[in-house]
Amino acid sequence: MPDSRETTLALDPKYDATGLITAVATDRATGAVLMLAHMNAEALRLTVDTGEAHFWSRSRGALWKKGETSGHVLRVTDIRIDCDQDAVWLIVDPAGPACHTGERSCFYRRIERERLVLVA
Amino acid sequence: MPDSRETTLALDPKYDATGLITAVATDRATGAVLMLAHMNAEALRLTVDTGEAHFWSRSRGALWKKGETSGHVLRVTDIRIDCDQDAVWLIVDPAGPACHTGERSCFYRRIERERLVLVA
């Protein structure tokens, strides 16, 4: 029997034991995956309500608006949720580099066997 | 001080307490996020070695080759790892629907306030 979360048109996020779902952001223009982070219910609500990506920082134990200090906000043009409602996909227009390292995307290295190679 | 995982060109995945990293797969042709899942070290190694996506099923507690029974394998054309090496991005050519529901992508619903809307 399919989980009702798969078929419903009601938003019913399946938060994990720590109250979080996973969020992945892709660049609307390039399709690149920019970053992966986590959201609690408040971060998801704020993202939907404001159109700017909010997350929950597991390391700091705090709600976090992406770009709050750097100005590199992620303007959300579309939010999708997956079959079992434990992950969301944000399609965004980034105001600057999405990675705290200054890279446009956090995924700036390719895995080639045991080595990593910088992506142009 | 930046974490050495951010700057190294050595593969050094940061597995969580349960031995997993997060994996997101996007369609090489369309850029769509197809699915989000988890990998243990063996799933990552098999994915790199075989060029087909392998995951760890948290619900079944078992290694899982995507498409093993359905035939809907994900052929991996590129694997990238994020800044802190706790997530990988697979760019794939899917052999069929990526979602077990039969949808091409697990993200077949858009969040609009409290409601979900099916994406065409």
Would you kindly provide a brief summary of this structure?
The structure is a homodimer of 120-residue chains. Chain A has 120 residues and is mainly beta.
List keywords for this structure.
homodimer, 120 residues, mainly beta, 4-stranded mixed sheet, two-stranded antiparallel sheet, 2 helices, 12% helix, 38% strand, globular
Largest sheet of chain A: 4 strands, mixed
Query: What overall geometry of chain A do the principal axes of the alpha carbons give?
Result: globular
Radius of gyration of chain A: 15 Å
Total beta-strand segments of chain A: 8
In terms of per-residue confidence, which ranges of chain A show pLDDT below 50 for 5 or more consecutive residues? none
Number of helices of chain A: 2
This entry's quaternary arrangement is homodimer
Strand composition percent of chain A: 35-45%
Q: Kindly report how far apart the N and C termini of chain A lie.
A: 46 Å
Report the average pLDDT across residues of chain A: 96
Q: Largest interface, counted with CB-CB under 8 A?
A: A-B, 41 and 41 residues
* Helix coverage percent of chain A: 10-25%
Helix-strand pattern of chain A: HEEHEEEEEE
Structural class of chain A: mainly beta
| Strand line-up across the major sheet of chain A | 2-1-6-5
